[in-house]
Structures are given as C-alpha cells and as structure tokens.
Amino acid sequence: MTAKVYTIASGKGGAGKTTTTVNLGTCLAGLGKKTLILDADIGMANLGLVLGLEKSEVTLHEVLAGKADVKNAIYDGPNGLKVLPSGISLQGFQNSNPEMLTNVMGKLVENYDYMLIDAPAGISKDGVIPLAVADEVILVVNPEISSLADALKTKVLVEMIDSTVMGVVLNRVGTTATEIGNQKVESLLDSKILQSIPEDPNVRNASAFRTPVVVKYPESPSSIAFKRLAASLAGIEMPDEPDKSQVKEGFVDRLARALFGGI
Ligand SMILES: Nc1ncnc2c1ncn2[C@@H]1O[C@H](COP(=O)(O)OP(=O)(O)OP(=O)(O)O)[C@@H](O)[C@H]1O
Ligand SMILES: [Mg+2]
C-alpha cells in the first residue's frame, strides 16, 4: 500500500486547516481507512492541542531534529486514527530541520491508505515543503475576499512547484448574507468545491473537550459535511442530503398513523 498524501493548505491563517485535517482524518479512519494526520505547522503547532496530545514528549520537532525515530512520535487518535503532532516549544521549532520532512514521509507512506498534512498558513519557504510532498493539495477557504485572495496565491505557488490542487473545502459557510457564492469561488480559484462546511458553534464546543466535532457531536451540521467529504475522497457513495420538508412530512404521517390507526 502507498498512501495518498493530501496537504491541507489555505494561505490565510485561521481558515480551518487544522479543523479539516482532524475531522477528515477521523472520518477516513472511521471508514476503515488506515489514516495518519501530521502537523507540518511546526512553528505554530496546534493539531496536538485540539486532540489533547500537547504533552507528548516525542513529536515531529524531535524527529526533524534527528533526535527521535518517527515511530515514537505517532500517537493514537479517535477511530484508530494515527497522529503525528508537532511540539509547541519555540526551542523545539528552532532545532527542527523542515527539509527532513520528505525523508520522514518516505518512511511512513507504505503504512497508510491516507496521510493528511496540516500545512502552515502563508507562503514561507518552510511552508513550501508540505505543499511539495503532497500528491494533491486541498485548499481550505472561507467565503470572503481576503481568504480567496490568499488561497489563490497558494494555488499559484502549488502550480509553480508542479503539484496540483485537488479542490476546495469551503469552510464556515452561512455566516453573512454578503458572503461569496459557490460559483464565484470555483471560478476565481478555477477549482472545484469538494465540500461546503457550515459555520457551526459545535466545532468550538468540541475543541474545548479536545475532541473532533465528528466524535463529540456526530449529527451536527459540520460533522455531516465532514463525513460527506471523507466518503467522497474514499469513493464511497452517500445518500443525498435529506430534504427537510420530506422528513417533516414523514413524521406527520407517522403521527397520524399512531393517532388514527393504520400501520
Ligand atoms: N465550520 C466552523 N464553524 C465554526 N467554527 C469553526 C469552523 N471551522 C473552524 N472553526 C474555528 O475557527 C478557528 C480556526 O480554525 P483552525 O484552527 O482549524 O484554522 P487553521 O487554518 O488551522 O488556523 P491556523 O492558520 O492558525 O493554523 C478555530 O477556533 C475553530 O474552532
Ligand atoms: Mg492550524
């Protein structure tokens, strides 16, 4: 087996890269796929933080400093997901050599179906490596102009290094009436929207419990969207989203049957 490697990038900070990496990874693992998520945001690491792994002694920092074997830096997440966090100390960041990432990936790629890399924001020199090691890049974008502009820069960078953008995860949808619509996002970025993820307060509530929203609130709107994204990446068909009016009608029908007889 050789893992399919997706790097989750955005350009602008705070778009939802870590949230997407954690929840997509958890869903892929839940589908029975051997999945590893890796925090390549070695300066501002927070993948471990959202999963309660911040006290881990051996992290990607030690691996990239040549002080530890990568297998000792991999921890268990939900659904059998494997997690390779980065450390949170500044010293650890300074000691790390980001160029060793390619080598680390080479050691892991045979062990998984999917590897998801949480990329740093921006287009720094160190940020190029996570883009270069990907088979394909997934852009996380919010429906607002500065997020789109920065995502476009990232896309140009990805193409400059002969990598490809697979598509867009449009995150935090539904906050304002003025937000940019799907078609415009697709035409500006010349990329397909793989999935829209709604604005959902459960995302923050779940991270307070150091648990992905798909585990803590599996029926919440964002969780359903993350599950759909995972299923589509894994090539698994999911039924179309239920039409709420039909659900309501079904309930009324059932109630009528219960009150007035019938089956
Ligand atoms: N769909 C959503 N609904 C509500 N809140 C969200 C959603 N997605 C992400 N958030 C919140 O937005 C914040 C930023 O998300 P996240 O940390 O995933 O972004 P990031 O792109 O990894 O940021 P950074 O560039 O700093 O690494 C977090 O507080 C997260 O809980
Ligand atoms: Mg992040």
Please provide a written account of the structure.
This protein is of the alpha/beta class. The chain has one domain: P-loop containing nucleotide triphosphate hydrolases (Rossmann fold). 42% of the residues lie in helices and 16% in strands. The chain is built from twelve helices and eight strands. The protein has an eight-stranded mixed β-sheet, sandwiched between helices. Strand 3 and strand 4 form a beta hairpin. Helix 1 packs across helix 11. The radius of gyration is 20 Å and the shape is globular. The termini are far apart. The chain binds adenosine-5'-triphosphate and magnesium ion. The site of magnesium ion has 5 residues, from helix 1.
Write the layout of secondary structure elements.
Elements: E1 4-9, H1 17-30, E2 35-39, H2 47-50, H3 60-64, E3 75-76, E4 82-84, H4 90-95, H5 101-108, E5 114-118, H6 125-132, E6 136-141, H7 145-160, E7 165-173, H8 182-189, E8 193-198, H9 201-208, H10 213-216, H11 221-233, H12 244-260
Parallel strand pairs: 1-5, 1-6, 2-4, 2-5, 6-7, 7-8
Antiparallel strand pairs: 3-4
Helix pairs in contact: 1-11
The structure holds adenosine-5'-triphosphate and magnesium ion.
The site of magnesium ion (MG) has 5 residues, from helix 1.
